[in-house]
Amino acid sequence: MKRLLLLGGGHAHVHVLKSLAESPAQSPTELPDELLDDDVEVTLLSPYARQVYSGMLPGWIAGHYALDQCVIPLAPLCRAAKVRFVETAAAALDPVARMVRGGNGEEFGYDLLSIDTGPVADMSMVPGAAEHAISVRPIENFIQSFKRLAVDVDARTKAGKSTAIAFVGAGAAGIELALSMQHAFRDRKVSFTLISAANTLPGKVGPRIARIIRQRGFGILAGQAAVRIDAGRVHLQNGAVVEADHIVFSTGATAAAWPRQSGIETDERGFILINEHLQSLSHADVFAAGDCATMADHVRPKSGVYAVRAGPPLAENLRRALRGEALQRYVPQRNSLYLISTGDKYAIASWGGFSWQGAWVWRWKDRIDRAFMDKYST
Ligand SMILES: Cc1cc2nc3c(=O)[nH]c(=O)nc-3n(C[C@H](O)[C@H](O)[C@H](O)COP(=O)(O)OP(=O)(O)OC[C@H]3O[C@@H](n4cnc5c(N)ncnc54)[C@H](O)[C@@H]3O)c2cc1C
Q1: Does residue 114 sit in the same domain as residue 260?
Q2: DSSP summary character for residue 223
Q3: Which atom of ligand 1 has the smallest separation from the CA of 290?
Q4: Tell me, what CATH number does 70's domain have?
Q5: pTM over 0.70
Q6: Which single residue of 26, 174, 231, 254 has CA 20 to 30 Å from 139?
Q7: How many C-beta atoms lie closer than 10 Å to residue 11's C-beta?
Q8: Does ligand 1 lie within 6 Å of residue 43's CB atom?
């Protein structure tokens, strides 16, 4: 009996689960039934019973989707794949003893380990952020925070008061969330301020996004790092103070601490270093994919697009590793399609050096996102 342990129900792992659920005849390696059913015991650890598809989260905030449309329930996927599901986070890894300790105190041994646990928010960057700001990650917490924020906006509106919301960090995800919130609160008196340490907005689509957020009346404080956050106040590097009823902390994500602490090889930021087989550089029985990993020879941006793409080669190589076969090489594409929605069923697309925008781009994104979700609904 071999034990395959999957950590995290991220974008690559939902594909692994789907692949395990499919009939072996359809699987790439024509895996015989008995190898999966009887010879391999697969367990998935995840702190939540569902995977939120971040690509549709802004659409939920804007009111275009119900939350159920944006989440992949993990338990049914596991049942279909004959995978044991344990609702707990991996808290520590001992790659020598081949053991993972869950947040619930349980220990999970493995013969083969696959990690797709995504990134974490780095709230330690700005003192006071953890206490006084809403973090975008974990996304499950953000969903609860946004619900509370919406209740507060309603209460303030009923009391005849306006609401000020400040976003610290103006990356693509933060801007998409801010634009979506503005759309959600379009009938109420809500103002938005974006605070960004950088002077320009990210990527090739930066100028397009900048135009839209100016047109939409956002306050923009560019080139000003937040240095401290108190209750309702963001202190900037230049001494200025931004007052806000709600502060959303949406600076870039970072690596969880436990992979680096385990002794497996990581890059300087703590992301697991992997080779072209999606296999740890230091431990051949550990695989990793998505934002928690960095491919040593092909560094790509941390984004859902690459995490999704890694799913099929990861599923294939886990099967091959279980069977002791040669692993398949995978080189991620250089460019990928980025689609940023602006809340009002309008979106901006970029591919390499090209970019487009329009309501048709949102319909295109909507089709892609729904097709992704359809694949994993059981
Ligand atoms: C609002 C928003 C919008 C975005 N939009 C886009 C977009 O349009 N396109 C794009 O390419 N990227 C987008 N991104 C980035 C995208 O979300 C990430 O790049 C993507 O989620 C990475 O996928 P992943 O599978 O590596 O990790 P995740 O999607 O974060 O999945 C990791 C999973 O592991 C679980 N987990 C975490 N820690 C543990 C642990 N210790 N043990 C077990 N399980 C654990 C988590 O609960 C989660 O289910 C967006 C991000 C945000 C915040």
Answers
A1: yes
A2: T
A3: 26
A4: 3.50.50.60
A5: yes
A6: 231
A7: 28
A8: no
